[in-house]
Design brief:
The protein is α+β, with helices and mostly antiparallel strands. The protein has one domain (about 25-150). Helices cover about 35% and strands about 15% of the residues. It has helices at about 5-15, 40, 75-85, 85-90, 100-105, 130-135, 140-150, and strands at about 60-65, 70-75, 110-120, 120-125. The strands form 2 sheets. Strands 1-2 form a two-stranded antiparallel sheet. A two-stranded antiparallel ribbon has the order 3-4. A hairpin with a 2-residue loop joins β1 (about 60-65) and β2. The radius of gyration is 17 Å and the shape is globular. It starts with a helix and ends in a 19-residue tail after the last helix.
Amino acid sequence: MIRFPLKAAALSLVMATGAFAGEQYVDRTGYAVSGYDVVSYFDLPQAALGQPQPTPAKGLKQFTATYNGASFAFASAANRDRFLADPAAFAPQYDGHCAYSVAKGGKVPGNPNLWRIVDGKLYLNITDRVVGFWEEDIPGNITLAEGKWGGIEGAAASRDRIPGFRASVPD
């Protein structure tokens, strides 16, 4: 029968393209990463451990793209185009959830102002206190998170609000 090979081929294609990724965290702005331009993070200097990171650029409504079922906003057409060339290179790890919470086996939102790029990947955390725990052993926490992510990735995205963070819709 032809049906089975076609279904198997379709399933292989879906798995190869990452369509089984978990649900992206989207807050009340309606955008992933609260409407911040994920490409802009990669153009910022990173602060030393224990210091606040620079603020990424806010995205604009006229420059958007969809990835992993969510809308991402960008500060410019150039940043949107960089994203579209390789979305997985810019999208935050763990579908925008807090990297430390994933290391502990859960899904809570990631705060777009509490970030770090490690080995070319964007990680978010939820609160300043959690950033402290994350920074105590970033490589170890990434290893733990990678081990736990497969078991929680398919669970629904967090619907929690980010404590102490005030989201605003992109202009």
